[in-house]
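REQUEST ID: PR-0412
SUBMITTED BY: lab tech R.K.
PRIORITY: routine
TASK: structure prediction, single protein chain
INPUT:
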Amino acid sequence: MRSKYNRVLLKLSGESLAGAKGTGIDTERLGDYARQIKDIAAGGVQVAIVIGGGNIFRGLSGAAKGFDRVKGDQMGMLATVINSLALSSALEAEGQPAKVFTAINMFPVGEHYSKWKAIEALNAGCVAIIAGGTGNPFFTTDTGSALRGIEVEADVMLKGTRVDGIYTADPEKDPTATKFSEISYDEVYTRGLKVMDLTATALCKENGLPIVVFDMDTVGNLAKVIAGEPIGTLVY
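STATUS: complete
OUTPUT:
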């Protein structure tokens, strides 16, 4: 497989991990993800991964129900650790070495994250799964992904979602919504498009990290994005 990228940061949604069940972890979906990730890693691409935790707990919705916001966000961070452990287990079952790093010290659950340890793992052919968001409340896993992508010097952030790119409106609600093949960071901001939160978009813009938003739930799409096929939407 010819790859357009050498090192990528793959952002996976917690909701997608739930599959049709809508909550928890769907083992079939997990297996699909693991096989797709193993395929691109076998082609020589270095893969760092950040996973959301929305299939288990979401800090913001917890705060809306009366949880203290800081504690709610900490619960959300722990949810991302659970998802990261599940994915590392699925990758290892497929024969792909993987290592879980955590933003806050959680030894022996995972190794405490540092840029240099993560890059060392990537250079050794390991998939580096970076859990716990930024380790701080009030930041989303989108911001965590942008931060980690910049830190590990990824060529691109691949945001795997349930839709096949960025649209003028929510395509699930508005049948007239049209898809962008590419769009600038500034246009995402001025149009108020819900691609990622503003902090994450600003981080990517300031550090020149392009984003490709694509449908990760269709098996084979990850390899297509890696090969440079024009699926999804490029944010630059």
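NOTES: The longest helix spans residues 69-93.
REVIEWED BY: pending
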